[in-house]
Amino acid sequence: MSATGLRPGWQLSTRPALPLPEPILGIRALQYQGEGRPGLLPAIAGLRVQAIGVVGARPGWDAVSGQICFDELPPGARRILMSDPERRFLPAALTVDIPSRHPARPTLASAPPMGPPPRRTVLLRPAPGRAIPAGMTAVIGTLRDAEGRGIALGRLACATGPQGRAATWITWTDGDGGFALLLPEGDPGARSCGLSVHVPLPALAGALARDPLGALPPDLDVHDPDQVSGLFMPRAVRPHAPDGQPAEAGPGQVPIRPGRTMRWDLVLA
Questions:
Q1: Tens digit of each residue's pLDDT (9 = 90 or more) over 85-115
Q2: Do 137-268 and 21-124 fall under one CATH topology?
Q3: I need a labelling partner for 77 at 20 to 30 A (CA). Which of 173, 189, 263, 264 fits?
């Protein structure tokens, strides 16, 4: 009997709670700062995250880790779509290989061990309508075709700095062709930067027109657009001021003003 004289001592103890299963997928969304640079902390909250084709898959937000977590997803390659209801950031799509929580019992010595659940970090680029911090060098505008129509999912890459040490800064256009290209502090005497533009090929452009989010290619920022077959092609552009006057800039250049925001509409040449 226990000291209380009422029940055996083992009945006074409580069974320890079983640990909660580790989420099957965790995604940490950070703000883009530049190519090859880590995102800003803290992680971005308030995003809409969907596991495409999986009914009832609802992610949760872990405030401690800053991760958007899925507890259950069917194993296999899964398409995850991220968008911002507040329109602070451009949407992103990624493909994640989800392992099984209950792998088959290995019967062969060559059976591979089960790896850890996937954890991904996504850098979200600012949407064109978001306020630009004071003192930042930026170019805003709209990417248009020769008929004046906005081009969705155009890729803009601006190279700054001297040759051999130039840094590249990238953004994508939104569904209407709008863009906000944020550049780092650089040479205060710089008056232009080298600009390269890629636009979707007709098949992708048509799919985006029908379903802008559903047709968004996954993992865009880990691919060279020149190497992604059937998706993008390079195009020359001419910058125009808001009044329609062409800019005085050399081929492949866009005027900038250090510490200021300039507006240039880019028209396909």
A1: 999 999 999 999 998 876 566 565 555 556 6
A2: yes
A3: 173
